[in-house]
Amino acid sequence: MAEGTPLDLKIVPANKASCDDLQTVFGPRGDAAFCQCQRYKLRPKEAFRKFPVEERAHRLRIQTECGNPGSKTTSGLVAYLGGEPVGWCAVEPRPRFTGLLRNNRVPWEGRSEDKADESVWAVTCVFTRVGFRRRGVAYALARAAVTHARERGARALEAYPIVPKPGAQTWGGSNEGSPSIFAAAGLVEVNAPTLRRRVMRIDF
């Protein structure tokens, strides 16, 4: 069951958030701060050790167009709770996640998909800032991603969540989210390429 959504929660395209707010969500330490949502944006033969976190943050600023509300493009959503930046969701046309295109199993195994199809969008990351979890923020971000993709002409939206380990809390360590978050937003499982990985999808 989805957690309730706080009445003072607001979700905006990332270009309408300031770059400082975006970095506040990512925080100064931990997996999100290290990755800067670049896992599926790495170029061929590129690895995190080859360029510093400052370069990753720079790329994120370019990808999101943060601080540029007039931009026609962005690569994600930012959640605010009572005016405080608290959550992030990476969502855009699937081919723009170039790391997905090179992945042999997720999301391709067992399916016949056109990797270049820009009408299929994807969510690769959804997380809530430390201190604001278990308030329904991730659920709200997943629902907002569905609306965001649909309103921009997507014919489908996919996500690639991880099934929590037995005994683990429903939401926590995985920045890909858990299946329950996306099920509450209307996505259904279409494939299970690994023991814990799921491919979930909604067609518009």
Per-chain topology:
Elements lengths: L8 E5 L5 H8 L4 H5 L17 H12 L11 E6 L2 E10 L4 H5 L17 E9 L8 H15 L4 E4 L19 H5 L4 E4 L7 E5 L1
Parallel strand pairs: 4-5
Antiparallel strand pairs: 1-2, 2-3, 3-4, 5-7, 6-7
Keyword list:
204 residues; alpha+beta; 7 strands
Q: How many E-type strands? A: 7
The number of helical segments is 6
Rounded to an integer in angstroms, the radius of gyration calculated over CA atoms is 16 Å
| Integer tally of domains | 1
CATH topology: Aminopeptidase
Give the spatial strand order of the biggest sheet: 1-2-3-4-5-7-6
Low-confidence stretches: 169-173
In CATH, what is the homologous superfamily? Answer: Gcn5-related N-acetyltransferase (GNAT)
Describe the structure.
The chain is α+β, with helices and mostly antiparallel strands and 204 residues long. It has a single domain, classed as Aminopeptidase (3-Layer(aba) Sandwich), CATH 3.40.630.30. The chain has 6 helices and 7 strands, in the order βαααββαβαβαββ. Strands 1-2-3-4-5-7-6 form a 7-stranded mixed beta sheet, with helices on both faces. A hairpin with a 2-residue loop joins strand 2 and strand 3. The protein starts with 8 loop residues before the first strand and ends with a strand. About 2% of the residues have low confidence.
